[in-house]
Design goal:
single chain, alpha/beta, Urease, subunit C, domain 1, nine-stranded parallel beta sheet, binds zinc ion
């Protein structure tokens, strides 16, 4: 019988399904391997008391703390960390070529890369991002350092060296010299990350053709074959904006989704960033292949030209995770993105142009609430990338963070006689700042917050 390494007692929220908030006032026990053993709903029950008595470590949350599953950020451009919050008045193409590619090119300097990763990884962990799906730059050394920093810091991560070789879709000073060079670098980089994960755990490689406009046909075909060879998952962008969507249509006469499928890139667990312009047919294809969409609501407000029909995609059983899209999204961490996802869905439902009659201004049936947004940020993202986490269920990995409503500097408070647990959950989603996040756990180990030993 495996022993109980950790017992956590107190009040907890999770959203294993899109439309139901789970409230637990009890005990979770965790084994030495970081996997949840038991979830008991009454901390005073004989069973709960017995389990707690057998645990090597007991973590009792304070009365105003709530435990939530760790956030799974399915779209982060790690090298764009230094430009977080800037350049967002530009169209996507200009933002990429004038701001983003010059910054990403700097990661040839490993000292600069190390400095950025040292700042970024602990910051994201401290915000409750227990898993991140990272785009690195085109550089192998910087990518290896990123994977090492995540493994050392205790953040679960999928890390991908960006592959991009297109002669007009990329600048000549920031691209792989050819498809063959891009494939060889991606193969080596994926093996590097595999090795780090095999030794230290937590990190895995993910093949990362940037997006179709930045890649030659030869590279796109080769990345599909490389995924077979290495058994790697894939991430790329798909139908993000009018410009990107039209670029693929002009080049191939077909949609982004159809072409990714034709290139062998649309497969189980493929992460498609944005997907705002996917059609109903595209969505059916994404579902059939077992791929999913990383929804980045704040970034989409700046660059995507429209709102993702999240509710419709969930109803069609397409896998969807939430993404910050650092730095197209101007805010790190996923709780603010939950709030943005709700806001965006409401604007899609009601419409945005007051000169149009209310009856035909919006798209009815588009709204989501904070529970659905939180589900997408946790269990939804985990399911999309094949991670057994995202909810407090025996057999899943114990990735979690705690919020203390009393520590909020953002107006959050539990009002006696007014707030029930579901209202407190809503407040936590919308009002939590970093100061209120008191502990962060990955694989059953305390990685950030009070008394964290990393
Ligand atoms: Zn992106």
């Amino acid at each position: 019988m495996s022993g109980i390494e950790l017992a956590v007692t107190g009040r907890m929220f999770h959203a294993p399904t899109p439309d139901a908030l789970g409230i637990i006032d009890g005990v979770i026990t965790v084994g030495a391997d970081g996997v949840i053993l038991d979830v008991v709903h009454d901390a005073s029950s004989p069973m709960a008391i017995e389990l707690v008595s057998r645990a090597r470590t007991v973590w009792r949350m304070a009365p105003h703390e709530r435990l939530l599953p760790g956030l799974v950020d399915t779209h982060v451009h790690a090298p764009q960390w230094p430009q977080l919050g800037t350049g967002l008045d530009l169209p996507l193409e200009s933002w990429l070529f004038d701001h983003t590619f010059p910054l990403e090119a700097r990661y040839a300097d490993v000292g600069f890369a190390r400095d950025v990763w040292e700042h970024m990884v602990p910051t994201l962990l401290g915000l409750g991002t227990t898993t991140a799906v990272y785009y690195s730059s085109i550089h192998e050394d910087a990518t290896r350092l990123l994977a090492e920093r995540c493994a050392v810091g205790g953040q679960r991560a999928f890390v991908g060296r960006v592959a991009m070789d297109h002669p007009t879709g990329t600048p000549e000073w920031y691209r792989d010299e050819s498809a063959d060079v891009a494939l060889e670098r991606s193969r080596r980089s994926a093996r590097d990350v595999f090795e780090i994960g095999a030794t230290a755990g937590l990190v895995k490689p993910i093949l990362t053709p940037r997006f179709i406009p930045a890649c030659s046909d030869e590279l796109l075909v080769g990345m599909g074959r490389l995924a077979d060879e290495l058994g790697c998952t894939i991430q790329t962008h798909c139908s993000e904006s009018d410009w990107e969507h039209a670029n693929v249509r002009d080049r191939f006469g077909r949609s982004d989704t159809e072409m990714l499928d034709a290139f062998g890139l649309l497969r189980e667990r493929t992460v498609l960033a944005h997907g705002n312009l996917v059609s109903t047919t595209d969505a059916a294809l994404i579902r059939a292949r077992g791929a999913g969409i990383a929804h980045c609501p704040l970034s989409n407000s700046y660059f995507a030209n429209c709102v993702l029909p999240l509710r419709r995609l969930l109803d069609a059983e397409v896998r969807v995770g939430l993404g910050s899209d650092v730095a197209g999204g101007a805010w790190p961490g996923l709780l603010p993105q939950c709030a943005h996802a709700v806001t965006a869905s409401r604007m899609l439902e009601d419409g945005v142009d007051g000169s149009i009659d209310g009856d035909c201004r919006g798209v009815s049936g588009s709204r989501i609430d904070s529970v659905t947004a939180f589900h997408v940020a946790t269990a939804g993202g985990a399911a999309m990338i094949g991670l057994d986490a995202g909810a407090f269920i025996p057999g899943r990995r114990f990735d979690a963070f705690a919020v203390d409503t009393k520590r909020s500097a953002n107006g959050m408070r539990e009002w006696d006689g007014i707030d029930d647990e579901s209202r407190i959950f809503e407040k936590i989603v919308r009002l939590t700042g970093p100061e209120a996040i008191t502990s962060v756990w990955v694989d059953g180990r305390l990685r950030a917050g009070r008394a964290a030993v990393v």
